[in-house]
TrEMBL record:
InterPro entries registered for this protein in UniProt: AGPR, AGPR_dimerisation_dom, AGPR_type-1, NAD(P)-bd_dom_sf, Semialdehyde_DH_NAD-bd
Pfam family, one: Semialdhyde_dh
Subcellular location: Cytoplasm
Reaction catalysis annotation: N-acetyl-L-glutamate 5-semialdehyde + phosphate + NADP(+) = N-acetyl-L-glutamyl 5-phosphate + NADPH + H(+)
Name of this protein: N-acetyl-gamma-glutamyl-phosphate reductase
Its EC number(s): 1.2.1.38
Highest taxon above the source species: Bacteria
Species in which this protein is naturally found: Catenuloplanes indicus
The organism's taxonomic lineage, starting at the top: Bacteria, Bacillati, Actinomycetota, Actinomycetes, Micromonosporales
Semialdehyde dehydrogenase NAD-binding domain mapped to chain residues: 4-135
Active site: C145
Family statement: Belongs to the NAGSA dehydrogenase family. Type 1 subfamily.
Length: 333
């Protein structure tokens, strides 16, 4: 018998991706999964790609997770804290929501509203020293999808002093699954197909998370909804502070990381290359006209941006190789 695992909020896109990854994990045994409106439904009925998975979604209560070793919380922002507070300390938790990511309560109130629930270990292993902190934690806050894609491109550049933390601009496009599974008019196929649109312009909730993890002090972030189901492509620009090559800085920072790949100089990231994987592809250069640094990052918002990252963190929490049960390579075409 391996590690007994439960998933709260299994009916959403991130929850469904968690079920898929856990069903193939060699050390984690998926024993329970819950939902709200879909409680009582078979997992394969809610997620047709999981037909054959012998699992019925139950109601989301603390009692549903009393006999597990690990719980993934894939609940809407603001709903994780109440359930987490009812679970025994012996149960390890990875929260995919935003409830415990921020250390600044004022930032939480400004971008999310309501009372700040507290701060857990931040779940991005590639940040310096973070693997050890995650491995020694029983409560881990997973990254946001835009956040991880941006942080991995930006953090080493600021840490090395090559990028000015006071002048950072990010434009990032995301697939529609990043907006969740709830029916919304602006996410109808006829509204999305053949169109790009910005949203939450100038006030996106991942801004304080990115600043917290990278040391950026001024960040302009523009999210773009793209007509595709999954994937994020982030273009990060910053004023150049030294003459170091930004690509070489990224390559040195991630030389031993299994999921972060700095591409050859003549190649640029694309979302299709990381689809279905837990990897992030990076590239960086210096703009010939402005002299600004340009770093481009691609990830799967349901993989490294959510469920894959959560499994990577859980692997570390249970002393497993962090790549266990995860794909380094994407699916093509």
């Amino acid at each position: 018998m391996g590690v007994r695992v439960g998933v709260a909020g299994a009916s959403g896109y991130a929850g469904g991706e968690l079920l898929r990854l856990l069903a193939g994990h060699p050390e984690f045994d998926l024993v329970t999964a819950t939902a709200h409106s879909q409680a009582g439904s078979a997992a394969g009925a809610v997620h047709p790609h999981l037909s054959g998975l012998d699992l019925t979604l139950g109601a989301t209560t603390a009692e549903a997770f009393q006999d597990v070793d690990l719980v993934f919380l894939a609940l809407p922002h603001g709903q994780s804290a109440a359930l987490a507070g009812q679970l025994p300390e012996s149960v390890k938790i990875v929260d995919i929501g935003a409830d415990f990511r921020l250390s600044d309560g004022d930032a939480w109130q400004r971008y999310y509203g309501g009372e700040h629930a507290g701060t857990w270990t931040y779940g991005l292993p590639e940040l310096p020293g973070q693997r050890e902190r995650i491995a020694n934690s029983t409560r881990v806050a997973n990254t946001g999808c835009y956040a991880v894609t941006t942080i991995l491109a930006l953090a080493p550049l600021i840490a090395a002093g090559v990028a000015d933390p006071e002048d950072v601009v990010v434009v990032a496009s995301s697939g529609t699954s990043g907006a969740g599974k709830s029916a919304k008019t602006h996410l109808l196929a006829s509204e999305v197909m053949g169109s790009l649109s910005t949203y939450k312009t100038g006030r996106h909730q991942h801004v304080p998370e990115i600043k917290q993890a990278t040391g950026a002090t001024s960040l302009s972030f523009t999210p773009v909804l793209a007509p595709m189901p999954r994937g994020i492509l982030a273009t990060v620009t910053a004023r150049r502070a030294t003459d170091q090559d930004p690509r070489e800085v990224l390559a040195a920072a991630y030389a031993t990381d299994p999921f972060v790949h700095v591409l050859a100089e003549d190649r640029w990231p694309q979302t299709a290359s990381v689809s279905g994987s837990n990897s992030v592809h990076l590239q960086a250069t210096v703009d010939a006209d402005s002299g600004r640094i340009i770093a481009v990052s691609a990830s799967d918002n349901l993989g490294k941006g959510a469920a894959g990252q959560a499994v990577q963190n859980a692997n570390l929490m249970f002393g497993l190789p962090e790549t266990t049960g995860l794909q380094i390579y994407g699916v093509a075409p």
